[in-house]
User: Fold this.
Amino acid sequence: MSLNRATIIGYLGADPELRNLPTGQPVVNFTVATDETFLDKQGQKQERVEWHHVVAFAKLGETCKEYLKKGRQVYVEGRLHTREYEAKNNGGKRRRTEIVASRVQFLGAPPAERADAAAIEEPPIPSADEVPF
Assistant:
């Protein structure tokens, strides 16, 4: 028996990119940054960022394109897949390991909404004389 499963929680590094496969099926690519804190040999606290390439197909991909933006926190669950491709300008064959998403959950408020929410002010409460009932 074997298991190929990846689960991450992190922040989008850029807006998702939508394209269509030759079959017409939509596919979205985006990157997610995760971080870890550790102590180095000298006992100093260090932080390391890891970037993960995520691929989402069909309706899941379209939903990601619509609602995800750079800086948004996201939970991604899927499987690891390594693919080979030809690099541009005769760069030879390259390999990339990606998470093929089966589930994506949007966490927290979108970055734009967070900024807008801070700028919204509540209207003043009317006095008892102004209330019509």
Summary: Helices lie at 58-67, 111-119. The domain at 6-108 is CATH 2.40.50.140 (OB fold (Dihydrolipoamide Acetyltransferase, E2P)). The first strand starts at residue 6 and ends at 12.
